[in-house]
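Handout, page 2. Input:
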Amino acid sequence: MLVGSELLLASPVTALKTLCGLAVQAGFWATAFTSLWRIFLGFLLAALAAALLAWMSSRFSACRFLVSPLVDVLKAVPVASFIILALMWVSGRQLSTLISFLMVFPVLYGNTLAGFDCADTQLLEMAYVFRLSGFKKFKAIYLPAALPSFTAGCRTGIGLAFKSGVAAEVIGLPAGTIGEKLYEAKLFLSTGELFAWTAVLILLSILCEKLILWLLKLLCRGVRL
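Output:
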């Protein structure tokens, strides 16, 4: 209200009207689903890779030694550098998946490894005495120790995946994505559309986070049983 210009800052009412106008268009849902699937795929691949490598690193010091420098590089290098470099290797369609993977992996790997390292040593000694199999030891001791840290990493990682994935789309400009729509909104000075698509991103991120946490809660219950 103080600025008095929709061009510089769209009001919430304008953003909501724009969002409602976009929602009735057929291309809106296709665009939202395309970005959602590619970014979420990158997150899932990062979660699987992080869990596997964290488990191997907790068991084998050589694996920890080899993965640690890679994780340090991924945490330190700016996302823009990865995006520009990745454009030389992959097409714009796979860019958001790759960037989401690279940004989420170090977070989930560090959290999960810390969880595995915190496994109760007394329980491990008891498992050794009773000669439990590797699978039973993993399910009864290691998995309960790592799940809380892994869950916390997922809570942080899903938001990071959407931020970095859409940033990759804005730079790579793959057709039919939210990043492309954000770039067009900036190009045509459509602040209402910019806020509307940003609201879509926030909603998608929240829904994905709720879904992942719900699935992990079910997994925790299964582990206790």
